[in-house]
Design goal:
The complex is a heterodimer of chains A (about 350) and B (about 250). In chain A, strands 6-7-8-3-9-10 form a 6-stranded mixed β-sheet, with helices on both faces. A 4-stranded antiparallel β-sheet of chain A has the order 2-1-4-5. A 4-stranded antiparallel β-sheet of chain A has the order 12-13-11-14. Helix content of chain A is about 35%, strand content about 30%. Chain A is elongated, with a radius of gyration of 23 Å. Chain A has 2 domains: about 240 residues, Rossmann fold; about 90 residues, ACT domain (Alpha-Beta Plaits, 2-Layer Sandwich), CATH 3.30.70.260. With about 350 residues, chain A is of the alpha/beta class. By secondary structure, chain B is mostly helical. Chain B has one domain: MetI-like fold (Orthogonal Bundle), CATH 1.10.3720.10. Chain B is about 75% helix and about 0% strand. Chain B has 11 helices and no strands. Chain B is globular. In chain B, about 50% of the residues are buried. Classes of the chains: A alpha/beta (about 350), B mainly alpha (about 250). Chains A and B meet through helix 3, strand 6 and helix 4 of A and helix 6 and helix 7 of B.
Chain lengths: ~350, ~250
C-alpha cells in the first residue's frame, strides 16, 4: 500500500548537510498497522513527512496505493493539483493535534471536506457521522480549547478520516498523551484499521505503541531502516534488536553449573505447552527467569528466559528438543548483558 | 465654535475611515506576503521578500509630514488635487499600509506551523492555507493590529491640516496654537482622548472575545503603545490622548 524505494532526504542549511533519511526502503501492506520506531533524530518524522510529500525527498520514490507520488510532485517547491488530490486521500494525525482553535470541533472535521469542495449539507452530515465514530458526537459545537488531549486527538482522527482515506499516517499521535489515553487512542486506531480496512503507518518512540497495535514494525537508526518485518518475522530473526525490545527478558543464573537460554516463540510453533513437556520428557527442573509473552490468534508469541540445571554440555539434548519443536533457542553467554535498545520505550 | 468642531470631527472621521480601509485592504495581503515569501515560507522568494521589506522600511522611516510632501505628485495623479480631505487620504493610507503590514506580519508569524502542515496534508493549496488558517487563526491579533493602526492614523491626521484637509488636529493647531484659544485646544484634546479610548475599547473587546473562544484568553489585555514607533515619532494627538490610559 505504501512503498518507498531508496528514499533519501538531505537537509542543507548554511553549507552544512544533514542526512535525515539514507536510502529507506519501506513496504507497508494493505490493511496492516505498521509502526516505525526509533529515537529522536533517527529520521522517523522526515520519513512520514516524505510519504505524503510534506517534505520533498532528495531522491527515491514514494508509492501510495499504486500511485507514484514523487512523480506527481513535479520539480517546483509548491504542490500541484495532482499531488494535492493524492494528499487528500491520505489522512494524517499529529502529535500536537493541529486543530484550528478558531473553529468548532465540527468545523474542524469539515475542513478537509471544504477543501474537497463538498456542499454544506454533505459536510455536516459526514462530520457528525465521523464524530460519532470516534465517540465525540456530543462535542460537535465545542471549541478545541474545551477538550482534553485525548478528545482533541479523536477530533484529529475524525478530521483525518473525512476524505475517506485508504491510508492513515500517524505522527507520534499518542506521544503527548498519558498512558490511559494513549491506550484508548490506540484502540480506536485498531478499530478503525479493522472496521474500515484502513492501512495505518505510525511513527513512535514508544515500544508499547508498537506492541499494542502494530502488525509489523521497523526500527530506524541514523536515517536507515535497521530491521523490519511482521512481529513474528522479527521474532524469528536471531539477534533482532526490535524483538528483544518488544519482548524484553532478563534474569541472571541462580548459580554456577546452570545453563541460561532464551527461547523465542514466533507463532508458527508453540501450539503445545513445550516447557512442561521438556520438563517431563527429560525429568529436569526448569526455572523461568523472565518472560514476555503474548497470545495472538491462539498462538504464543514472545520470548522466555529459562534456566536449566547443569552446564551447556549436559543440556545439548533438551536444547535439541526445543529446536525440534520449531522454537528458536539462544544460549545466553553473558547474562549481565542487557539489551540496550530503546531504554525509554521499554516497559517490563 | 460648534459648527467648526462638528465639521472637524466629520473631516477626521472621513480621513481615518478611508485610510484605515485602504491600509487594511492593501496592508493585510502585504503582511501575509511578507510571511509567505520569507525563508521556509510557502512561497519562499528571497528577492520579493527583500523588495517588499525594504519598501516597507523606507516608507516607515519617513516622517509623515515629509511623506505628505514627497507624495504630492502621486496624490495629484490619484485624486487630481493636493489640497483637501481627499488629498490627505492618499499619504495617510500610504503611511499606514507598511505600518499595518508589519503588524500583520507579526501576527501571522505567530500562527502554529503545524496548522499549515495539517491543511497541506488535507490537500489544501497556499490560498487555502491563507484563507482557512493564517487569517482566522490570527484574527484576534489582527483586530488588535487594526486598532493600533486606527489610533496611529488619528495621530497622522493632525498633520493633514498642512494640506488644508481640516480635521481636529488642524483645528487644535490653528485655534489653540496660532490664536492662543486654549479652550478650543483642550476640547479637541478631550474629543480625541475619548475617540481613541472608544476605538481601543472596541478593538480590545473584539480581540478578547475571539481570544477567549480560542482558549488563549483569561489574562488581562494590555494596551498597546505601538503608536510611539510611528514615522515621525510620537504624534501630538496620540501623545496627548494616551497618558490617561497607559497606566
Amino acid at each position: 500500500m505504501i512503498t518507498t524505494q531508496g528514499l533519501t532526504k538531505v537537509y542543507r542549511s548554511r553549507g552544512r548537510e544533514v542526512t535525515a533519511l539514507d536510502g529507506v526502503d519501506l513496504h507497508v501492506r494493505e490493511g496492516e498497522v505498521f509502526g516505525v520506531i526509533g529515537q529522536s533524530g533517527a529520521g522517523k518524522s522526515s520519513l512520514i513527512r516524505c510519504v505524503n510529500l510534506l517534505e520533498r525527498p532528495t531522491s527515491g520514490t514514494v508509492t501510495v496505493a499504486g500511485q507514484d507520488l514523487t512523480a506527481l510532485a513535479g520539480r517546483g517547491a509548491r504542490a500541484g493539483r495532482e499531488l494535492r488530490e493524492a494528499r487528500s486521500r491520505i489522512g494524517m494525525v499529529f502529535q500536537h493535534f493541529n486543530l484550528l482553535s478558531s473553529r468548532t470541533v465540527q468545523d474542524n472535521v469539515e475542513l478537509p471536506l471544504e477543501i474537497l469542495g463538498h456542499s454544506g449539507q454533505a459536510r455536516s452530515r459526514k462530520a457528525l457521522e465521523l464524530l460519532d465514530l470516534v465517540g465525540l458526537a456530543d462535542k460537535a459545537k465545542s471549541y478545541p480549547a474545551q477538550l482534553s488531549g485525548g478528545q482533541k486527538q479523536r477530533v484529529g482522527i475524525a478530521r483525518a478520516l473525512a476524505g475517506d482515506p485508504k491510508v492513515l499516517l500517524s505522527d507520534e499521535a499518542t506521544s503527548a498523551l498519558d498512558p490511559e489515553t494513549t491506550r484508548s487512542i490506540l484502540e480506536l486506531l485498531r478499530d478503525l484499521n479493522r472496521q474500515l480496512g484502513l492501512t495505518v503507518l505510525l511513527i513512535t518512540h514508544e515500544m508499547d505503541v508498537v506492541k499494542t497495535v502494530c502488525d509489523s514494525a521497523a526500527l530506524m537508526e541514523g536515517g536507515q531502516i535497521v530491521e523490519s518485518g511482521t512481529v513474528s518475522e522479527l521474532l524469528a530473526t536471531p539477534g533482532s534488536e526490535l524483538a528483544a525490545a518488544l519482548f524484553p527478558v532478563s534474569g541472571d543464573a541462580s548459580g554456577e553449573d546452570r545453563t541460561v537460554i532464551d527461547v523465542t516463540f514466533h507463532g508458527e510453533s508453540a501450539t503445545q505447552p513445550v516447557i512442561s513437556q521438556l520438563s517431563r520428557t527429560y525429568n529436569i527442573d526448569i526455572s523461568i527467569l523472565g518472560a514476555a509473552m503474548d497470545t495472538v490468534g491462539g498462538k504464543q508469541v514472545g520470548r522466555m528466559r529459562i534456566e536449566l540445571p547443569g552446564r551447556y554440555e549436559d543440556n545439548v539434548v533438551p536444547i535439541g528438543f526445543l529446536r525440534e519443536q520449531g522454537l528458536q533457542v539462544e544460549i545466553v553467554e553473558n547474562v549481565a548483558q542487557e539489551p540496550v535498545l530503546l531504554k525509554e520505550g521499554v516497559t517490563k | 465654535m460648534q459648527p467648526l468642531l462638528s465639521q472637524a470631527c466629520w473631516d477626521t472621521l472621513y480621513m481615518v475611515g478611508w485610510s484605515t480601509l485602504i491600509a487594511v485592504v492593501v496592508g493585510l495581503p502585504l503582511g501575509i506576503l511578507l510571511v509567505l515569501t520569507d525563508r521556509g515560507g510557502l512561497l519562499h522568494n528571497a528577492v520579493l521578500n527583500k523588495v517588499i521589506g525594504q519598501v516597507v522600511n523606507i516608507v516607515r522611516s519617513m516622517p509623515f509630514i515629509i511623506l505628505m510632501v514627497a507624495l504630492m505628485s502621486f496624490t495629484r495623479w490619484i485624486v487630481g488635487t493636493t489640497i483637501g480631505r481627499d488629498a490627505a487620504i492618499v499619504p495617510l493610507a500610504v503611511g499606514a499600509i507598511p505600518f499595518f503590514a508589519r503588524l500583520v506580519e507579526t501576527s501571522v508569524r505567530e500562527v502554529d506551523g503545524g496548522l499549515v502542515e495539517a491543511v497541506q496534508s488535507m490537500g489544501g493549496n497556499t490560498w487555502t492555507v491563507v484563507r482557512k488558517v493564517l487569517v482566522p487563526e490570527s484574527l484576534p491579533s489582527l483586530i488588535s493590529a487594526t486598532t493600533t493602526t486606527v489610533v496611529a492614523i488619528i495621530g497622522y491626521t493632525a498633520m493633514a491640516g498642512t494640506v488644508g484637509a481640516g480635521g481636529l488636529g488642524d483645528l487644535a493647531i490653528r485655534y489653540g496654537y496660532q490664536r492662543f484659544e486654549s479652550q478650543m485646544m483642550w476640547i479637541i484634546v478631550a474629543i480625541l482622548a475619548i475617540a481613541i479610548a472608544v476605538v481601543q475599547f472596541a478593538g480590545d473587546s473584539g480581540a478578547r472575545v475571539l481570544h477567549r473562544r480560542a482558549g488563549k484568553g483569561g489574562e488581562p489585555f494590555r494596551f498597546r503603545k505601538r503608536a510611539a514607533f510611528l514615522p515621525g515619532g510620537p504624534v501630538t494627538a496620540d501623545a496627548t490622548a494616551t497618558p490617561g490610559k497607559t497606566g
